[in-house]
Amino acid sequence: MERKRIRDFGIVPGRLETGKRNKITDVPGVKVGHCTVKTEENHTGVTVILPGEDNAFAKKYTAAAYVHNGFGKSAGLVQVEELGTLETPIALTNTLNVGKVWDAMVDIVVEQCEQDGLEPMSINPVVGECNDSRINQIQKRAVGADEVRQAFVSASEEFEEGDVGAGTGTICYGMKGGIGSASRVIQIGEKTYTIGVLVQSNFGATEDFVLNGEPVGETILDWKQEKDDMAASEEDKGSIMSILATDLPLTSRQLRRVLRRTGVGIARTGGYTGHGSGEVMIGFTTANRIPSGADEELLLLQAIPEHVINRAFLAAAEAEQEAILNSMTAAEQTRGRAGERYYSLSEYLEDGQSS
User: Could you tell me the pTM of the whole model?
Assistant: First the structure.
């Protein structure tokens, strides 16, 4: 199946220019890999975001985390918030697999460090999650070390969206959710910078869905019921993981400010941060690297002045909005464990239901 993106339907969210791929991998060095598990019982997986080619533990990335609503079980956020650095790739999976993925990440980082002559005594893997139990028999904990390693091996600048990897079993606005990505390019001074976002979408009530400024949720509810009395209708629960990458020189504090604007992108699609929706944002910049165990007593880091940061705010909001929509159009229709049907947003758009 050709996986469609929202722009394939003539819908253009926002006004800023996109990167070449319109994905998080437009940020130089960033790669994304998936391992998808699809069996009779399990529809789940793992997605990894590699910030660069080299060992992140040896040369850490300036990073930040922001929890918009803390109904979640992510690992590694406390140290990211405290130190403002990222020292491993980021992994996404389902709720009950966080520990197994974290354990596999430790092994992978230890192996990388051994190759670089390092002996880490403390490692902070960052693992995010969404609960995919409506489609996946989550208690089976089907993602282990082999799947994590497969995701690492598959990492590339070109990657699939929709019901793949960590998005295999997720639901968004009562339709099929998944992995989605988008990017924006901004100009500061004489230089061009990229802000890219990747989401694992698993939130939202159908009736609240807004498509590029058009409130279509109630229309979609009617459309689904006309097609199938087993069509799912969801209240706002689930979660969304948002990963932001950039080559813009930012401090951890500035990066956290930019991260918070991804919440604006969520709101643009109709999300209002429900009680059971864990909304977690993690971001890093490739511009300011911090050597592990540096002997220097003074590190020189670059940062943009605050009076130009609005450009990054808008880019983050737009990229988040489009990434969510891409996660929904790229996903295939599927059924939940109770037999309910989750349509793809592409099916609605192909029926000509939206202008």
Answer: 0.97
